[in-house]
Write a structure and sequence with these properties.
Helices cover 58% and strands 10% of the residues. The chain is built from 24 helices and 14 strands. The longest helix has 55 residues.
């Protein structure tokens, strides 16, 4: 092809007509959009879809938060609560920056947080009283010191920054995670008129939401501080648990984990009657002579007989015995050789609490009952007035005593008729108790006490916690009160309740954070959240650890209560691998909550 024809081809403009020898045509034409725009559009569409499916978004973030919480670097991780909040807040901020509204109805946060507080109270009731007896004065100190120290630092912030109306109380309530304080500040601004009121309320909500998230994350991380400084919070919790119970103690009746015990030192074995020592004796005679070993079944000539008192033992009978292993090991000397007959031994056992109440069962010694009504039942523990008591043979059973026994189902059914009501383990949860407890706790939190222009209320969180504690204490004395409330169900409410609350809060905070950034209030909110949220808590920890010499796990719970930070309390439980922090949490939480409500109202009047 000649040069002329090459030029003609090169003059043809089309996608397949470019001259391969022309360097100018080797460069692609610019695209009408950038790859960043494409990525942003895809992310915007994904977020918009999730924004229209809040239920799916909620549980996707919860699952991702738990997965991220398991990741540890050099043994240190954020934990499920902090991870969930970080992810939720990040998604909310991303949506706000792309113009996508991300949010979950606030009622979801309220419902799940209330479930969390009630479930915590149901767990720590009996231990709460013990902890209160040990360190009530120290708990009161932290409940007052932390909020007043936070208020002092906020006054310093007011001197350093020229804050817009609403920012001062918003930072105080948010950095202390005291939701009632937000309501008190809103009540104070209700007296304002016109645009000043609207501006103040807007600043208040923005400062509260942003500082709440910052303070929540930083305080959760602070709960890991003692272990990073070389203290062993987990060991401290175990030591306190040992002090609060003897080595042989059992879970109190009525508590969520009352039937979650370890293996029992009892067994069921079969023996062939070959020796003449027991031949010719009635089972009723043997029951009174050997109250600690029970004959559960008798096999004779291929037939099985239940252990009726009138049965007379004959040579070559096969006996299924139930009792402590050391006693069974000596049974061969009096009966004959042990035989392997599984069908004779497979009777089935259960553990239950028996509440002594009938005239035939009370005012009798345990040894007397062992040879009569309680024969064939292993006594795991005995409780009186919600406290475990020694179970020696001469201990007299009183009305209202709770006997935790293990044995054949038919024996427990029989003792129910002659000793008192039986409370059996259950996988079901009594929803009447749960619903009424939630309603009563919320009603208690709604009760207001007028104090001049301020209406004080402990809030639903404190009310639910106190009702849960009270019900848990009452159930240790009356196990049948309220029906079953098993530990797995209670733990689910605690775990799911807190993390749903945290995720909802994070997903709804993005717009407020963007507004704070646009309004130039970012610096004072961040500084205030970190200083007010952490400095008093760190000082309180130092006082508790080095001045009061408090148990590390108990101290973390007290500080979390003083900061009104339920997620921090949960982080303290994770760090200590114990529920001990929840013992000190309620007292300081209740006191600090009321103090911070008043202080937030006062700070709203100041600015």
């Amino acid at each position: 092809m000649d040069s002329g024809s090459r030029r003609r081809v090169s003059n043809v403009r089309g996608p397949f007509a470019a001259d391969p020898y022309s360097s100018a045509d080797c460069h692609a034409a610019p695209l009408p959009y950038s790859l960043d725009d494409v990525a942003a559009g895809i992310v915007r569409q994904i977020l918009a879809w999730f924004g229209g499916q809040p239920f799916i978004l909620l549980f996707v973030v919860v699952a991702a938060g738990y997965a991220l919480g398991r990741v540890k670097i050099k043994g240190i991780g954020l934990g499920a609560t902090a991870s969930s909040l970080v992810l939720a807040l990040g998604i909310s901020l991303l949506g706000a920056s792309l113009g996508v509204k991300i949010g979950v109805p606030p009622i979801a946060s309220t419902i799940f947080f209330n479930l969390f507080m009630f479930s915590v109270g149901m767990k720590v009731g009996p231990q709460f009283l013990s902890g209160l007896y040990r360190a009530a004065g120290q708990f009161i100190f932290f409940g007052l010191f932390i909020p007043f120290a936070c208020a002092g630092l906020m006054l310093a912030m007011r001197a350093l920054y020229d804050l817009e109306p609403g920012l001062l109380p918003g930072i105080l309530a948010g950095s202390t995670t005291a939701s009632p304080g937000l309501g008190a500040a809103e009540a104070a601004y209700d007296a304002a008129a016109g645009g000043a009121k609207a501006e103040a309320l807007g600043n208040l909500s923005t400062a509260f939401a942003f500082s709440y998230c910052i303070s929540m994350i930083s305080f959760i991380l602070m709960m890991k501080l003692p272990d990073l400084l070389g203290r062993d919070t987990s060991a401290a919790a175990r030591a306190l648990e040992e002090q609060m119970r003897s080595s042989s103690s059992a879970a109190l009746p009525g508590t969520a984990d009352e039937f979650l015990g370890g293996p029992l030192p009892v067994s069921r074995r079969a023996y062939q009657l070959e020796k003449p020592r027991l031949v010719g004796h009635r089972l009723g005679e043997l029951r009174r002579s050997y109250p600690l070993i029970a004959i559960e079944r008798v096999r004779r000539g291929g037939q099985l007989f239940d252990p009726a008192d009138e049965i007379v033992l004959q040579p070559h009978d096969t006996l299924a015995l139930y009792g402590r292993v050391p006693l069974l090991l000596r049974a061969a000397d009096a009966i004959g050789p042990e035989v392997d007959q599984p069908e004779l031994r497979e009777i089935g056992s259960e553990t239950a609490d028996v509440i002594a109440s009938t005239p035939t069962g009370i005012n009798r010694t345990l040894q007397d009952l062992a040879g009569d009504l309680g024969h064939g039942l292993f006594l795991n523990a005995m409780f009186r007035g919600g406290v475990e008591v020694p179970k020696g043979p001469d201990v007299v059973v009183r009305r209202g005593d709770v006997l935790r026994v293990t044995g054949a189902k038919w024996r427990i059914k029989a003792i129910e008729q002659h000793l008192g009501r039986v409370v059996r383990p259950s996988v079901a949860t009594d929803l009447v108790t749960l619903a009424l407890g939630l309603a009563l706790g919320s009603a208690l939190g709604a009760v207001t006490i007028p104090l001049g222009p301020i209406k004080l209320a402990v809030g639903s969180a404190v009310g639910l916690l106190l009702v849960g504690i009270l019900l848990s204490i009452l159930r240790t004395r009356h196990p049948a009160l309220g029906g079953p409330f098993p530990e797995p169900a209670r733990q689910l409410l605690e775990d799911l309740g807190l993390n749903i609350f945290i995720v909802v809060m994070g997903l709804n905070a993005g717009a407020g954070v963007v507004k704070a950034i646009a309004g130039g209030a970012l610096a004072p909110i961040i500084i205030g959240s970190l200083v007010v949220g952490l400095v008093p808590a760190v000082i309180a920890w130092a006082i508790g650890a080095f001045v009061f010499k408090m148990n590390d796990a108990l101290l973390l719970g007290a500080i979390a209560g003083g900061r009104c930070n339920s997620a921090g309390m949960r982080a303290a439980q994770e760090a200590s691998r114990s529920t001990i922090p929840a013992i000190s949490y309620p007292v300081t939480f209740a006191i600090s909550n009321v103090v911070l409500t008043v202080l937030s109202y006062v700070f709203a009047l100041l600015g």
